[in-house]
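Hi C.,

You asked whether I'd gotten around to modeling the 138-residue construct. I have! Everything is below, sequence then structure, no commentary in between.
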Amino acid sequence: MNSATSQDTFQNSEVVYRIGELSKEFDVTLRTLRFYEDKGLLSPRRIGNTRLYSRADRARLKLILLGKRVGMSLLDVKAILDLYDPKGDNRRQLETALEKGEEQMIILKKEREEVETSIAELDRSLATVRGMIASISG
């Protein structure tokens, strides 16, 4: 994990990360981080042209990338993230995450079935072609 330098702190001593640090840590481009900012998914503090990301921004980025990895839309990810309340129990956020996660699980399982069917069809076709080649050869 990248740790920020002593100069990279907010006045309340919260650790902050520069855009390049998060880019390297999560293997995403600077453009990707700016895109997430434009979409309202991340809200780094700005000092001039410098973006300073908090631990909360880092955690949000981790969740954004998880959502993306499992095929969720950025709108769904944003809906879940926007329900976070640092002073509440976040039950609504958790229920929404569960609901959207279950919906995505159904989609992924259907896609897996389709891929398995395609693999089986291709396997049969390749076996047929191998048989044709074998009959010509010999």
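If it helps when you're writing up: Helices lie at 19-26, 30-38, 55-69, 74-82, 91-137.

Thanks,
B.
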